[in-house]
Amino acid sequence: MHQNVDLVIDGSKISGRRGETVLDAALRYGICIPHLCHMPTLTDIGACRLCIVDHIKNGRSKVTTSCTLLVQEGMVIDANSERVRGLRRNIAELLVTQAPNSRAIQDIALRCGVTEPRYEFRSDDCVLCGRCVRACKEHYQAHAIGFVGRGQERHVEYPFREKPESCIMCRACVTLCPMSITPCDGPMKSGEGYFCGKCASLTQAPQYEAGDCTRCDLGEGFDCSGHL
Ligand code: SF4
Ligand code: SF4
Ligand code: FES
Fold first, then answer.
1. Whether residues 114 and 189 fall in one domain
2. Which of 66, 110, 214, 216 gives 53 a disulfide partner, CB atoms 3.0 to 4.6 angstroms apart?
3. Among 98-102, 103-107, 210-214, which is the least confidently predicted range?
4. Bigger pLDDT: 99 or 216?
5. Does any ligand 2 atom lie closer than 6 A to the CB of residue 131?
6. pTM above threshold 0.70
7. Domain CATH number, residue 23
8. Do residues 148 and 155 make contact, with C-beta atoms less than 8 angstroms apart?
9. What is the pLDDT of residues 24-82, one digit of tens each?
10. Which domain range does residue 44 map to?
11. 94: part of which helix (H) or strand (E)?
12. Among 106-110, 180-184, 190-194, which stretch is predicted with the lowest mean pLDDT?
């Protein structure tokens, strides 16, 4: 039996379940808050920062990630303020610049209003969302991969660069990765600065509007709710 708390998100009164996050509560009510690193079956770590919202309290507002913010009685959340939309657009722009060859990430960027990234594409093969590391640890208790390095050198790897015995070759790390679920082979090489538009991404990704969560498919096969 859930204990409920009342809160307001984007002007809608909703009933949250004590212990759940603002992001989960919003998604249950069909309120779209863009997100990438969140998966319902994994511990949230606030890695991608796409899910930021304004938490309004005592006349002040604080920007925070909704996937790490637990619902509280009387809470007021604005997931669609001008400030949040601007910050989220910048975050999405950096993500798609870092890793443009993922349709899921292109679609997220488009939804957040990024049509012409201001920076050159880097074409990294990882956005450091940590889905793979968490799945390996939490679904299979394998602890076979982890983050190494700092700054632009940071990436996911086996310890000592060798596959450990604990890796059971389940491929969960691959199947949950936004880079491998929806690879994009378009001409978005490092140095280019536009979406090629050859796939259907441009038509599949209407811009984010408050309360319009439709459990959209981002790219092909990447369900934003995290269920594959
Ligand atoms: S294939 Fe190996 S590294 Fe990947 S999730 Fe499974 S156990 Fe972990
Ligand atoms: S390899 Fe993929 S799943 Fe793992 S952190 Fe990078 S983008 Fe995320
Ligand atoms: S979904 Fe909340 S930080 Fe990534």
1. yes
2. 66
3. 210-214
4. 99
5. yes
6. yes
7. 3.10.20.740
8. yes
9. 999 888 888 889 999 888 999 999 999 999 999 999 999 999 999 999 999 999 999 99
10. 4-81
11. helix 82-98
12. 190-194
* Shortest-distance ligand to the CA of residue 69: 3
Q: Is residue 228 part of a domain?
A: no
Tokens of 57: 């309290």
Instruction: Note whether 107 and 142 are same-domain residues.
Output: no
* Phi and psi based region of residue 59 (left: phi greater than 0; alpha: psi -120 to 50; beta: remaining): left
Mean pLDDT of 110-133: 85
Ligand 2 within 6 A of 47 CB? Answer: no
Give percent of the chain above pLDDT 90: 51
The CA-CA-CA angle for residues 62, 63, 64, to 5°, reads 110
Ligand with smallest separation from the Cα of 127: 2
Residue 118 and residue 48 share a domain: no
User: Which is the closest atom of ligand 2 to the Cα of 127?
Assistant: 7
Ligand 3 neighbourhood includes 47 CB (under 6 angstroms): yes
Q: How far is the CA of 16 from the centre of ligand 2 (A)?
A: 30
Domain count, the chain: 3
Residue 107 Cα distances to 74, 75, 157, 202, 218, angstroms: 33, 30, 27, 7, 6
